[in-house]
Amino acid sequence: MKEASRLLVVVLSVIFMVAGAFAAENAAYVSPAENEDKAYGELHGFICDRIRLWPDLAPHETEADPGRFIYDKKGKTWRRRNVSRPELVILRPKAAKRRDVLVVVIPGGGYDNQSMGSVPRNTLPILESGRWVAVLHYRLPRRKGRNIYDAPREDMARAIRHLRVVSGQYGFSSEKIGALGFSAGGHLTAIAAVSSKDRLYDPVDKLDDLPVHLNFAVPVYPAYVLSDGRDRANVNCGDGATVLPEFKFDDRTPPMFLVHGDQDYFSSMASVMLYSELHRRKIPAQLFVYAKASHGLGTSVNVTGWQQRVLEWLDCMGY
Length: 319
Description:
Layout: H1 2-26, H2 36-40, E1 47-52, E2 68-72, E3 77-81, E4 87-91, E5 102-106, E6 114-115, H3 118-128, E7 132-137, H4 150-170, E8 177-182, H5 184-194, E9 216-220, E10 256-261, H6 269-280, E11 285-290, H7 306-317
Parallel strand pairs: 5-7, 5-8, 8-9, 9-10, 10-11
Antiparallel strand pairs: 1-4, 2-3, 3-6, 4-7
């Protein structure tokens, strides 16, 4: 048994070393997307690196376009659009004492764009707690002939592999990588967490030998979770709605913290039913459903401070 364990360590070390060479090559300087400084606002000063996820074209793509941030005057927010060259933007912790934890932050936007409105204000507390952040800019808009989440799931898996390899370079643990996503990003967070054993694309290089499980997950008002009338605010347990079959809850499913508003047009029952399945499987989970809160949660007095609840939960979970 000891010999087998030592052999496993050696094999994994070789894989990480070889994959690291590919990651270093792919992580060469990536120029920022147009208007990145404006979209990131206060966060922009914490950016320390950008990692291009694919060495050439991403799967099923015919071009490599980073897209650009465009200001939505009606929504009063910056949105990233038309991405075919996905990337990770790495942000260093703000606190003097850094932790060995990294949170992948995933913007929402219906898999049509990436809304940056919720990113700066909800990411800053993570950085202030001493944790690292990597913002995932996945491919969009939705690809014709594919599930709306297929390309983003491929990008998420590739991103986690990159992060496992570069973890030592930055100082976070390769087994303390989690995700926090909003709306469509909450959907991507949840499906990545519960279905990490799916083979999503043909291997590109040695990096793809690495596992893609998350160590913790925080889906925030996740969309696209329920069947049978999903995404209606009046969906409840009596409507016959179920969690969609792509949410597999495999044996690498990590602890989760779920956040939703009870007036969300993406029914809060999505989070309730995800929590119920986690609880049934004895996977540590925590759930907050806020009264009189719609999509985006808002700033009413009962909702204010949910970000701190997440940090307290991470402390409890050892992250």
